[in-house]
Design a protein that fits this description.
It contains 6 helices and 11 strands. With 235 residues, it is of the alpha/beta class. Bound molecules: fe (ii) ion (2 copies).
Length: 235
């Protein structure tokens, strides 16, 4: 299966043309398209409508997760319904299988990496922040543990390792992702992990357990030479 992956389309109300041009760059070999969150700029249903009108032209199976920008207008249930209504699978802790390949996806959350990982200690606000990070990794754990397929693809918005965030300001790292996400993948096994969110990060890295991780944030892919809008990976 050839997977074309991208993230951080940040579709706004006036972006129909821009999105259309980007999708013209979709590799023709792609069997499936993965969208790693920040589908919209402000999480407005009108923005999602613009994006969906372009996604429907592709006639490809599409799997997505939402990103932090998609949460901005408190319209997540509406956005999810819009995606489902047109047959776009949006993962949030439920496993999905297609053509013998298992998919697990969550948005993920911040919290930091390795020794810099925030722990649930002290003020209730810190505990609640860390709790959200743990909840996301538990959701991922739940979906990965239900998959029986040998080939398993993980789709996230936030980064699971610091290596693919390198290029972003160091001060931002705690807000770019969480090691809890990669720990789960190492424990339950995954073939490949895709994520976005770190627009100025690095293209690829590996978890401590050796799973390949691809940062497919579209601004990052477009900044390469030659520029690409999608990462094509065979699983
Ligand atoms: Fe983004
Ligand atoms: Fe983001």
């Amino acid at each position: 299966m050839y997977i074309a992956a991208t993230a951080d389309l940040h579709c706004g109300l006036n972006d129909r043309e821009r999105i259309r041009e980007r999708f013209n760059l979709l590799p023709p070999q792609a069997d499936i398209l993965l969208l790693g969150g920040d589908l919209t700029n402000y999480g407005r249903p009108e923005e999602m409508e613009v994006l969906i009108s372009q996604l429907l032209r592709l006639r490809l199976p599409i799997i997505s997760v939402l990103g932090n920008h998609d949460y901005e207008s408190n319209q997540v249930p509406v956005l999810l319904r819009m995606l489902r209504e047109v047959g776009i699978t949006t993962l949030d802790g439920e496993p999905y299988v297609r053509d013998g390949v298992g998919f697990a996806g969550v948005k993920g959350f911040c919290g930091g990496f390795g020794r810099g990982e925030l722990t649930a200690f002290g003020e209730p606000e810190i505990k609640s922040f860390v709790h959200t990070s743990m909840e996301e990794s538990l959701l991922l754990e739940r979906s990965l543990s239900q998959l029986r397929e040998e080939r398993r693809v993980v789709l996230l918005h936030y980064a699971p390792i610091p290596e693919t965030a390198v290029g972003e300001a160091r001060e931002l790292f705690p807000f770019l992702g969480s090691s809890r996400l990669s720990d789960v993948c190492d424990r339950f096994g995954a073939t490949v992990i895709f994520h976005g969110h770190a627009h100025h990060g690095a293209l690829e890295g590996r978890t401590r357990g050796g799973i390949p991780v691809y940062n497919v944030a579209q601004p990052l892919l477009l900044s390469q030479s030659p520029p690409a809008a999608f990462r094509l990976i065979e699983v």
